[in-house]
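Colleagues,

Please find the record for the two-part complex below.
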Amino acid sequence: MSGREMDNANPTILSISELPSRRRKDKDGVDGPEDFGIQAIMMAKPSYAMDPFYLSDYSDTDSDDSSLEPIDEQEVYDLIAPISDPEHPLSLASLGVVKLQDVHLTSPSDLTNPAALTRVLVELTPTVTHCSLATVIGLGVRVRLEQALPPSYRVEVRIKEGTHSSAAEVNKQLGDKERVAAALENANLMGILKKMMKPCME
Amino acid sequence: MDKPGPQLVHLADFKPPSAARAWVSIPNPNGLPLIATATSEKTVRVYSLSNFTLHSTLEGGHSRSIRSVAWKPSTQDNGELCIATGSFDSTMGLWRRKEEGGALRAGGSGEPLELEVTRNGIKHDEEGSDDGEDWEFAIVLEGHDSEVKHVAYSPSGQWLASCSRDKSIWIWEEIGEEGDDEFETVAVLQEHTADVKCVSWRAASSYKDEGEVLASASYDDTIRLWREEEEGEWGCFAVMEGHDGTVWSLEWEPLVSVKRFDLEDGRPPRLLSSSADGTIRLWSLAPAAPSPNKPSYFNSGIPSTMRPAPAAEKWICTAVLPKVHDLPVYSISWSARTGQVVSTGGDGRVAIYEERKREPAETEAEPKPEETAESAKPSATTEWVVVTILDGAHGPYEVNHVTWCPRYDAGKKSADEELIITTGDDGLVKAWTVEGNPIES
């Protein structure tokens, strides 16, 4: 991947204060997901902890008592907002790829049925309409949510309409369970995904 | 209507389960009480259908998920089991295992003998020697450029078909003596414009004197039919377009159904397909002359020389089964005994359907749902009804595969009772009975 020209060398970057967050209000702003300082690198978890397969539960992302309440859009957003762009050392939230208003949740009518499914739809806005990394970014978002959310959540990741020249192809690929499964057995791709996920683990 | 309707009742989980996603479970076609499950642990787990426990494991042959598994139809009584595997590592494997003390019987008529075979197998397990070494990884078949999605033996055992993300279908033939492990590539079929997800064989002579016919389903949303046009020359002779999403699985109509609904004497078996669009469609040979292929969504940019030749047969969608899934339908199975169909998919539902003859008066009175309107005519004499639906067959997990399977365990209620076997993302393989099935009475 290195040595290639960037699709978008000068992306618009949102400042942290512009990003929607609930936690920052609750706590004292110590958990800024955009913390890329030396401390974060020093404190990084061992690499196995970054393996999306390893993170089979969602307790690491929310140690508070939120498991008693249904998961809402903000929580889904918080899971994916810190994911790093594969091209820039910036979060998907600060690049405007992931937006709170583009996270949609459909909860089952019968909450007592353990097999009832919740649908999650995340629409991504690529920084440029020809972004060749849209599939990788989408894969990262899908994998992050599938690993972090309970198994009754069905995750759909799509490119927001009108924001990408080959959105239909990317959407079909991201929706194909078999392709996603095979991609996660590709060592090169997993290397990229682990790098993207790193900020989520900090 | 007053009686409780038919329902799926959980019979057993096969133990121990896979620790990761299980993709598919295929019952042995030669009358042995065994079922083989392909897993993302890079293994195949062979379970006993007599007691729902592990019989043996195939491991060490593949470096990525095993996506598909196929038993070789037994052609001779040589006491050997043979399995083909297809993996995301882009290779296929052929595995052999000598079954001690038990001779295999083609056709599987001798029931006590089969049980004896299993007991030997189980005894073997208890002696602790069953660590997978008894399955010999006989040969690796290389050729595909990327993930192998599905492998299928033809009913005669002559051909082995494989399909891949590389858009191609390969047809292999074992040459030489059984056990020589020499394979020849008979054909490489490349007319699909995207991943080929599934291949399914139609038995020879199921229509006129035709040989074995192969159907394929693809990420390009189409289904194609292939046959040996001349000696050694395979070609595509039909294209089916209608699904609005990847076609995940295919099933040919079993003889029991052909006989029951063979209204225009001498029609070929129909083909059933399931798709990411959430529908299950039934396809039939049209009596009309073939028409040129319409360019499909994925055909753009393909040079005209690579486009398929005009199809020699026209197959049309003659029914859409009642829609019960709202996520991709990954798997369907058509019972060779009862003609009932079972389906499952990403929504974790399992549904059973039945085709019934329509009362002539009803034909006019009851308009078909919108989506079947264009093609409803030829099937107007029959209708598909949902027999039963089960939600959450694997709890919150997706179900990747479903199949009808003969019952062998001690609780068997009749000589030809069938179970339903489901395979899920939770790594579990589950057995179900159908209680109160109207077709049994």
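The CA atoms of residues 107 and 118 of chain A lie 5 Å apart.

Comments are welcome before we finalize the supplementary table.
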